[in-house]
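quick one before i forget lol
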Amino acid sequence: MLQGSNIFGHERPLLIRVSFTACILGTVCLPLFGLITCVFISSAFHFEDSTGTHCQVPNYLPSISASISLSPESHIWRFCIGLHSAPRFLLAVTYFRFYKARFASRFPESPLICLNLTFSVCEHLGLLLLTYVSSSETYFVHKEGFVLFIISSLVHMLTTCRLWRSVKKFSLNPEDAKSHQWKVRFLRLNISFCAFAGFFYWKHNMYCESGSYTLFALFEYLVVVSNMAFHLTAVWDFRSRELMVISSSEDKD
């Protein structure tokens, strides 16, 4: 029997009720599972195809782009990213409403809220673009999707940390301070990993040194994992909230 929920004075049947924590964990674990699975399959079964580069020097790890462009890896990755898309957009809107409720008319928080939402959406659009257009199909489009994802994710994390500095300032809850602290830590790690990945990618293309592309691939993994860890801090932000799906029609006897 479905549990009822009173919405605007009307009793509606409650179809689904899930804690926001479970929703966030599922949203983050889907791409993490996809990444680990694709890298493992590429390394174990498509090693030569996934690690070969124009330099033709020894390479021991596949890049993410190489991993998700092969089959069945591409299907696994696209399935995981596609499944986690709706909750990601839902989370972006939830954060927007959360910030609006706290900083509706404050400066500079008010414009930062819109900027944060914009780059959160752009981050996910970039991820969808690089996911569904592989490097082996249209390299330019895949590359632009990757650049959009990286730039948008960095701006989104920066604006989020700035907003949470204000949240922490006006909050008495220690969980808010912990959330801000870990957000800043993951942001710093992400920036560091991006810098190292960019350096080794440049070094590989300039000098074709053995091991440079392997180190690029390793730091590329860490960029993505630190990004996932940043989004996982939403568990503290919405620890007491629930996601409910309610019927659009009233019960009829």
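fyi Residues 96 and 114 are 8 Å apart (CA to CA).
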